[in-house]
Amino acid sequence: xxxxxxxxxxxxxxxxxxxxxxxVCAAIKLQEAGERxxxxxxxxxxxxxxxxxxxxxxxECDVPSQLYSYSFALNPDWSKVxxxxxxxxxxxxxVAEESxxxxxxxxxxxxxxxxxxxxxxxWLVTTTNGDYAARSVIxxxxxxxxxxxxxxxxxxxxxxEIFHSARWNHDVDLTGKRIAVIGTGAxxxxxxxxxxxxxxxLDVYQRTPNWIIPRNERRFSTLEKALFRRxxxxxxxxxxxxxxxxxxxxPAFTRFPVLQVATETAAKRNIRKAIADPGLREKVTPxxxxxCKRILISNAYxxxxxxxxxxxxxxxxxxxxxxxxxxxDGAERPIDVLVVATGFHVxxxxxxxxxxxxxxxxxxxxxxxxxxxxxxxxxxxxFPNFFQIVGPNVGLGHSSMxxxxxxxxxxxVDAVRTMRREGYGAVEPSADVQQRWxxxxxxxxxxxxxxxGGCASWYLDKFGNNTTLWPGxxxxxxxxxxxxxxxxxxxxPVTHEELVTA
Length: 502
Ligand code: NAP
What we know:
31% helix; 15 helices
């Protein structure tokens, strides 16, 4: 099936989808590489991606900000070790603004369709705000962008206020309300302590407990900030120390899960310190190896659960009525507000629904057959010049995603440079190269805690494969992507004169 580039589409060299950390990084690095003809389309009204959207009370980063920031834009002004959402959003916005790329960003523009036009060697990208014909598409749509709503009997008939943690309704006054939170993941453990402070009654519905270790939080002193500002090498050293500390944790996830016993001990101490009730202690203690699900950090969650106005409900939800949640034991708990903190669509990313490749096949259909797969987490056979940032097996359980994003963006920019230099109109990884990569990843997944840890997690797809996380050290990933390895790609020369630019 051939798609034809229409006359009305705006021709651009590169179209970046999403203005989160990945999209902003891509824009900056494309510009630095001398690529001037690109746009960044973003469905929301500003940059920031997940850090623009997730405004729930208590939203903070669980990776130290010294590392959860671009290597090329250190921020001496972080207020504390783990920054709150408004600070991270302001940071990424400032970096975008200071880079001089913001005029390439088109906001309030959702991508509807991305189809390869073989004749033109371009992607025809249909958006809610006009069409583009792009030589390459760089998708920075984020792995944790589309809320997953629970399929619970009666939820549509709930008459009170209901919203997802990633779509917080700030118009709802929560003071003195009876609130329920479904889910006890990374988002929930941050918002529960905030809700506990204002709610008349807070019911927390837990399906599976998580391992939660203490948060070594502290504010940066004025002196430290001044030092970071005046001596950037000092901040580089602080960043390197955080990197090394987190990287040292990787083998406990990827090769020797038994080492997670140390984490479990710290988490159990965290429980004992905050919770006196033996029944509650038991309910919050996981029965699987730490690291199998994301290890969470909090000093506030357990004390909140132990508060008088909070009940941890573990009986399982049977249904939701107009004004209450009914559990499987028949108990009915009336509520005014329902917060669903039930996570995101990860192994079935919505962007894949919109992308149609060389043979007229949708990426979602290709991935539905065998699970998500991409060469080096970035490129997919049958989808020329389509680059995914934070694609399959690029996620992390132990360090900063910004490191992975920068690694991928370097690779993509090198691909763009190579194409220009060599006069290629289309590049895609050959099928066997991609298969070998995927097979190697699967092999390396075998001893990991995500495979052996005895839990169900959002890292695993419907086939039971972990298609989300990188099973190794982050520096290995960076090394693998240090150069665009064009010899592993099927290439086509440019067939359109207009594509050959200086
Ligand atoms: P999540 O970790 O996927 O947690 C979802 C929670 O909802 C789990 O407790 C899950 O229980 C529960 N749940 C899902 N469907 C349910 C249903 N039908 N009935 C009852 N319970 C249900 O989602 P999240 O908390 O939004 O976090 C997602 C990821 O975002 C994190 O792992 C992390 O990578 C990222 N995040 C990061 C930060 C940060 O500080 N940087 C903060 C928030 C989120 P089960 O465990 O039983 O499935």
